[in-house]
């Protein structure tokens, strides 16, 4: 079955940043979120960790 990892950063009921394993990168929805997304997307080690989270985090609980 298809398993998906989604990480969302929400403050004051507003979503700022989201990582979706189907997309494979962070997306920013506010000026602060866009800056954070650019920073995280530019770090190859961090992105490899997030992209593999569907295996080491989601599948272990599924």
From TrEMBL:
GO biological process: antigen processing and presentation; immune response
MHC class II beta chain N-terminal domain sequence ranges: 1-62
Domain of life: Eukaryota
SUPFAM superfamilies linked: MHC antigen-recognition domain
Assigned GO CC terms: MHC class II protein complex
Alphabetical keyword list: Disulfide bond, Glycoprotein
Pfam hit, one: MHC_II_beta
Protein's recorded name: MHC class II antigen
Organism name: Ficedula albicollis
């Amino acid at each position: 079955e298809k398993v998906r990892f989604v990480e969302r950063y929400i403050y004051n009921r507003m979503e700022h940043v989201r990582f979706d394993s189907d997309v494979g990168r962070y997306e920013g929805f506010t000026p602060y979120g866009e800056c954070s997304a650019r920073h995280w997307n530019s770090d190859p080690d961090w992105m490899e960790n997030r992209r593999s989270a569907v295996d080491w985090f989601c599948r272990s609980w599924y």
